[in-house]
Amino acid sequence: MGDRLFYLTREFKFDSAHNLIRYHGKCEKLHGHTYRLAVTISGEKNDEDMIIDFSFVKKVVKRKVLDRLDHAYINDIITQPTAENISQWIYGELKDELSGANYKLHEITLWETENNYVKYKEKNV
Fold it and tell me: Does the CA dihedral 7-13-110-77 come out positive or negative?
């Protein structure tokens, strides 16, 4: 990619329940969160002067992530559903479909609460 890089972010919310099976504390009990998810894509503008269409990002995230995690028991999908593991799983689900000739998936930010979040991106990406 060239010397002008843009970062495009689309945010989402979903509600899920989980419990942390390898954790000793309050969160080992079943509980839920309203998660906030930010999907960030980096890239250069295409011939339409955009990196990627926001509606395409929304469609992919809905199909690959929200339809599976919203109002779900995350332990059925991710054995130890910490914020770190959930964000890594989301990245893996989206990486291939949100990569193109002029853009790639840059980073996932996942808020478990209003004040607590984790960022995930792959090294050297």
Answer: negative
